[in-house]
Write a structure and sequence with these properties.
heterodimer, A: seven-stranded mixed sheet, 11 strands, B: mainly beta, Immunoglobulin-like, six-stranded mixed sheet, five-stranded antiparallel sheet
């Protein structure tokens, strides 16, 4: 059983650009969640996908969007980047049913917006 | 409005002693509480969880205690080891699946 992987590990963008971050969930995990962790803070929920449909969203604007694919991979897209978008972006996968409350995190993508 | 609070940003403990990390929450509707450990440049790693219908869960050196009347939980690590040095996040969840709500974390340093 492979863990959760994310790419790229680091990324530098300029304000106004667009970025796509990728995540590969654990096999068999139908739910993927994305979190933003700013410096000195705990992770904050962006949104969750279950079987390719958005299944909940946190307090983030529509320029944060996502996709989930049948092969357990997913994407987080951020348009019109702002300086405050600089953070560690984490994806987490979880199984359906028993144990579904446990989310398994990837190593994250560190995004710097200049 | 923080629903999950970790009021101690840091904790220093001697190797072999007990580490106690605390967490308070405000929402009585939470069903699960989880602890994650995070090393620098890595994602959070799941450590231990507890359902709201229990008051204690133990896994090796790690025990989590839940006091629902006080809306308080704690993670005990006994004995503490230098490899336990990391940031520990408390998180809460409504339902079996949904979004985790995290505290700001407590940085634990275990000194040899």
């Amino acid at each position: 059983e492979t863990g959760v992987t994310q790419s790229p590990t680091h990324l530098i963008k300029t304000r106004g650009q667009q970025v796509t971050l990728r995540c590969s969930s654990q096999s068999g995990h139908n739910t993927v969640s994305w979190y933003q962790q700013a410096l000195g803070q705990g992770p904050q929920f962006i949104f969750q996908y279950y079987r390719e449909e958005e299944n909940g969203r946190g307090n983030f604007p529509p320029r944060f969007s996502g996709l989930q694919f049948p092969n357990y991979s997913s994407e987080l897209n951020v348009n019109a980047l702002e300086l405050d978008d600089s953070a560690l972006y984490l994806c987490a996968s979880s199984p359906t049913g028993v144990g579904g409350e446990t989310q398994y995190f990837g190593p994250g993508t560190r995004l710097l917006v200049l | 409005d923080q629903q999950v609070k970790q009021n101690s940003p840091s904790l220093s403990v001697q190797e072999g002693r007990i580490s106690i990390l605390n967490c308070d929450y405000t929402n009585s509707m939470f069903d699960y509480f989880l602890w994650y450990k995070k090393y620098p440049a890595e994602g959070p790693t799941f450590l231990i969880s507890i359902s709201s219908i229990k008051d204690k869960n133990e896994d090796g050196r790690f025990t989590v205690f839940l006091n629902k009347s006080a809306k308080h939980l704690s993670l005990h690590i006994v004995p503490s080891q230098p490899g336990d040095s990391a940031v520990y996040f408390c998180a809460a969840l409504r339902g079996s699946q949904g979004n985790l709500i995290f505290g700001k974390g407590t940085k634990l340093s275990v000194k040899p």
